[in-house]
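FAQ
Q: What does a multi-component entry look like?
A: The components come first, one per line:
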Amino acid sequence: MDLTRVFDSAHALHAASVHMPLSLGLLGLPLAIAAFLAPKRWPGVRLFGAAFFLLTCLAAGTAVYTGQRAASELVALANKDIETVVAHHRLLGWSVAVLAFVSCALLTVSHFRARSGGRASAGFATLSALALTVVLLYAGSSGGRLVYGWGIGTSVADGTSGATRIVGGKPADTMPVIPPALASVAAPADSTYTPNVLPIDPAQAASITFTKDIVPLLERHCLKCHGGQSPEAGLNLSTHAGILKGGDYAGPAVVPGAPDSSPMVLHIRGVYLPKMPKDAAELTESELHVIRVWIAAGAKDEQ
Ligand code: HEC
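Then the predicted structure of the entire assembly, as tokens:
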């Protein structure tokens, strides 16, 4: 994977940025223990530990921020179960930031109280660092479940049930089957839940044709950049063959039968970035629905 692409996608950015608080937080625990047990042997350990936890707190805040962006893309595609897991994961992220801040504050206090011992605050700092470690492991695990469908304590064999794949590769490589969480978009499991994604109706699919329904949409929104002599990203949307051939990066723009894994749909939703049409008004859900239904029915050209 091209590392500069990390900044193109909120998912990839979050995946990269969560590793900072994860590693910092875990390294912080031995520091807090040293600050409690052996402050004399290493006089600066409490202040050093405080600075360390401040950094962990900032890193956790960054991860929550990037996660917020990744989640807004994910939730647009997902169902109520996923929203609950996302909310839970976000709470864990905030808890990491808060616990890191508490550990930082307690170690600072114990540093300035070193003359009179400061052991009690160092002891509480150790406890809060311990809690931080536990919450971090939970947060990492819940993130793993969200992205890959498995985390600490769940079976790896269940790896197809994640809500999304790491964005960036060709869909055929990274998402051979639509994960159940996305498949349920087509037929929401929970009838009281109305995701902002319209379900696909086979009867409607039969009535949609490439020339009558899809070409005008692409002409209106996309051909300015994806037509002519040198289309953007090598993607020529002005012919059926060009759509199937796809672009330089995302591969074939449609995966026949799988609208919600098709780069065209993922780019229009902004799951793949940049969001399409680039720097222009977004498609309405019903316009996108026409495209999704056409892809679901096989993305055929009637000629
Ligand atoms: C203003 C110009 C512009 C418009 C309009 C536009 N695109 Fe794009 N599109 C781009 C650019 C630039 C890229 C390359 C982005 C990148 O990867 O950095 C791109 C990339 C893509 C890709 C990924 C191609 C690949 O494999 O690399 C898809 C799919 C796509 N656009 C679909 C669409 C669709 C569908 C529409 C209409 C709804 C649309 N675009 C409208 C400029 C545009």
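Q: Is there any commentary attached?
A: Sometimes. For this entry: The CA atoms of residues 36 and 122 lie 5 Å apart.
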